[in-house]
């Protein structure tokens, strides 16, 4: 049981050490990245909707 406790303590110690090495983005970088993600998501949503609408229209033509 003591071996498991030691491993858990070492794991969390390693996590804290690695988290201190992390370079966190500034507020401006975070805002810019958020805008990019939302823009790309919107473009992909419009693209997916368009392709779906076109395929749906083509299938309806064949079925009628």
Automatic annotation (TrEMBL):
Topology term for the membrane: Single-pass membrane protein
Transmembrane segments: 33-55
Source superkingdom: Bacteria
One Gene Ontology MF term: protein transmembrane transporter activity
GO biological process, one term: protein secretion
Matching HAMAP family: SecE (MF_00422)
Family indicated by similarity: Belongs to the SecE/SEC61-gamma family.
Subunit structure: Component of the Sec protein translocase complex. Heterotrimer consisting of SecY, SecE and SecG subunits. The heterotrimers can form oligomers, although 1 heterotrimer is thought to be able to translocate proteins. Interacts with the ribosome. Interacts with SecDF, and other proteins may be involved. Interacts with SecA.
Name assigned to this protein: Protein translocase subunit SecE
Organism: Chloroherpeton thalassium (strain ATCC 35110 / GB-78)
């Amino acid at each position: 049981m003591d071996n498991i406790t030691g491993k858990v303590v070492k794991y969390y110690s390693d996590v804290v050490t690695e988290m201190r090495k992390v370079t966190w983005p500034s507020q401006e970088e975070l805002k810019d990245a958020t805008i990019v993600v939302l823009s790309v998501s919107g473009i992909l949503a419009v693209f997916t909707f368009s392709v779906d609408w076109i395929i749906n229209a083509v299938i309806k033509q064949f079925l009628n």
